[in-house]
Fold:
Amino acid sequence: MSRRGRGRTGRTKVVFLLHNAYAIGGTVRTTLNLAAALADRHDVEIVSMRRHRDEPRFTIDPRITVVPLVDERDGSADLTDPEYALAATDFPNSDKRYEQYTRLTDRRAAAHLTGCDADVIIGTRPGINVYVALFAPRRALRIAQEHLRHDSHSKRLRGVLARHYRRLDAVVTTTEADAEVYRQRMPLPGVRVAAVPNIVPAPGGITRDATTKVVAAAGRLVPGKRFDLLIEAFSAVASKEPDWRLRIYGGGARRDHLQDLVDGLGLSGHVRLMGPRTPIEAEFAKSALVVSASDAESFGMTLVEAMRCGVPVISTDCPLGPAEIITEGVDGRLVPVGDARALAEAMLDLITDEPLRRAMGEAALASSHRYDAEPIVARYEDLLAELMSTRGRRAWARGCSRAAVWTRRQTRRVRRALPGRPHLPDPRTTGP
Structure:
C-alpha cells in the first residue's frame, strides 16, 4: 500500500472503530487480533464508542492506542452531559445496538472522525460503519467490516446500509459466500466487496488429551445456535456410548430451557452446561470432538479454535461459514441443518473410529494455519493496495452510477409531464 507521510515514522495509520473495546465479544477479540498483527507495520488506533470499566477485558497489544469516546463509568462527567440523555440521530435506529447510542456518541464520533489523521478507517458493526460513511475524511480509505451475515440484518437496516455503504471504499465480510450475497443483493458501484476471514491465533500452552471421551460445544445459549438439537442428538449417542459426555460452554437466555431439556431426556449424567470459559481453547483441548449445530453462522469461530487445538469438528452445513472452514471427510464433517439423526451418526462415526478421529484431528491442525496472522495480514495489505490504486476508477464508476440514476429520474419526470398523458391514480391511495 502506498503510504502517505506520518511524521518521522512514515507509517500508515489504521484506525478501527469498536462498539466497546472494554467488553468481551467475538468482534472485540477478532479486531484486537487483527490490530495487533497490523501493528508490526502500521500505527494502529482503536476508537471505542463506549467505556464502562477501567481496564479492557482482553489484553491489548501495548503498541495499539485506545481512544474511548463516551465514558460510562460511575462518576463520569459524560453521564451528566445533556446530550447523553438524548437518543442518537446519526447512528441508525435499525441497528440492534441503537439503545446504547446517544447524541453525545454521535457528536463525539463526528468530531473524532472529522479531525482524524488516519490513512485507513475501519468500522466493525453496521451502525458504526454509517458513522464512517458520514464523517470519515475522503482522503482516508473507508472500510466497513461485516461480522454478521447480510441476511441477519433486518430489511430496514439493509436499506440504510445500501444508501450509506455507497460512500465507502470497501465492504469486507468474513466469508466468500456472504461477500457474494452482498454483491448480488446490495449493488454498490465503485465499492470493493471482499472476503477476508478472521485471524485465529494458535493457542499457547495447550496439551491435547488423547484419551478423553468428551464432546464439546461452545457459543451463546440462544435459539439460532441450536443446542437443543445437539442435546437431542447426543441422547442417541449416550444410549450407544454411555461412557461419553457432552459439555456445552457459554451463557445466555436459553440456559434454563436447555437444562430442562437435559433433565427431561434423562441426560443429567451425560450432558453439562458449563457456563462461559475464556479462553475456550483450554477446554477444547480436553475434548475428542467439537460440534456446532447452528442454523446459521457468519464465520464459525469456535470451529477454527477447535481445529487450532488439533480437534476434529462436526458442523451443520449452514450458511455461511462452516463449508469454507471444514473440508468434508478430511478435517471434519458437515451434516444437514436441523437433522438430529445425521448429527448423532456423525458423532458416533468419529467416537467409534479412533484412528479416523486422530487423522482428522491432525488434518484439522494443519488446515487451521490458514488463519495465522501472516496470510490474513497479507490479504488486508493486498486489499489496501488495490483500493489505493483503483481510487480514480472506482470514483468514476460511482459517478456514472449516480448520473444514470439522475437520468432515469429525469426521464420519468418528463414523461409524467407530457401533454395528453393520462393521469393514473395511485393504487396506494385509491380504494377498490
The longest strand covers residues 43-51. DSSP finds 14 helices and 13 strands in the chain. The two ends are 62 Å apart (CA to CA).
